[in-house]
Amino acid sequence: MFLFHTKEHAQRKYIDLIKEASAKWPNWDPSRNLHPGDFGTVEKKTGDFIVEGNIYTHVDIAKIANQYPPIQAPDVDNFQIPSFEVRGSEIRPDDGEDSGHLLRSRWQFNSKRGAVLLMHRPRMTRVPDEFFKASLHLPVLKGKCVVYQVWNCPGFYMYLSNRSSEQVTVSLRAKSNTSAGPDVHSQPPLTLHWSAEGSAGVRQYAYKADAVYTPLFCLKSIRRPLLRRDQNSYGKAAWHETDVPWDDLDGEGVTEPEPIYDNGPDDDDDDDDD
Fold it and tell me: CA 274 to CA 260: how far, in whole Å?
C-alpha cells in the first residue's frame, strides 16, 4: 500500500509536493549540477530537467544574455521546504541541544504523502529579470524552459514520507576528526554528517566540504494567451513559472484517471433474457 510502483513515481511525487509548496523545482539527483541560464525541457515521465544549452554560451542568445550576467544572493545558514501536509519545527543548538548539532529539525507527517527538503548553507544565483524582457521573441527559446534561479550547497537532505504518520527528526552534526595527526598546533577538521530518527520513507542525503550539490532550482517558460490564434507570433506572450507536465497525482505518484461514464445499454436488460 505504501510502496511506489517505480522510482519514477516516487520522483514525480516528491517534485509535485515540493513545487506545490514553494513554486520551486527539487532536483532528484542533486549531484547533477544545473547552472543559471540552462535551458531545455522537462521530461514528463520523471520530472527531470533535460539541459539543451545555456543562454550565456548559445550562439543565438549569448549576445543578449551576457548583458545581464548572473547575480549571487547572500548566503544563508539553512533553508528548508516542507510540503503542505507536514508540520515541523527547527531546534537550534542554543536552545539547549547538543553543541554538535548544526541543524536539528523535527517533522510530523500524516497518512498522506509528505515531503521535506533541507539545505545547509545554500547560495542562490539567479538570472536578472531584465534578460527575460529582452529575450521574449528569441525563436530558439520557443517551447523551452530556462533555469533562472539555482541553489547550490554542501549538504542536503531529501525525504518523502511513507504515509504511516511517522515523526522524523533530522540532524546535521559536526564531529572533530581526531585522526588528523599528533600536531598539537593544528586544528582537527570537522566532519559533518546527517542522521535521522523515525524515518520510514524514501530519503537521500549527502555532505561535502564545498557547495557541489544543486538540490533546488526555478524554471520559466514562455506562455501565450489561450485564445491567441496566430501560431506564428507570440503576441502578448510572457515568461511565467513553468508548470509540472502532468495532471494531478495520487498518493503513489500515478496520474489520477479521468472518471469513466458508461453511456451504453443498461446491464439490467441482459438480466431479463435469462
Answer: 28
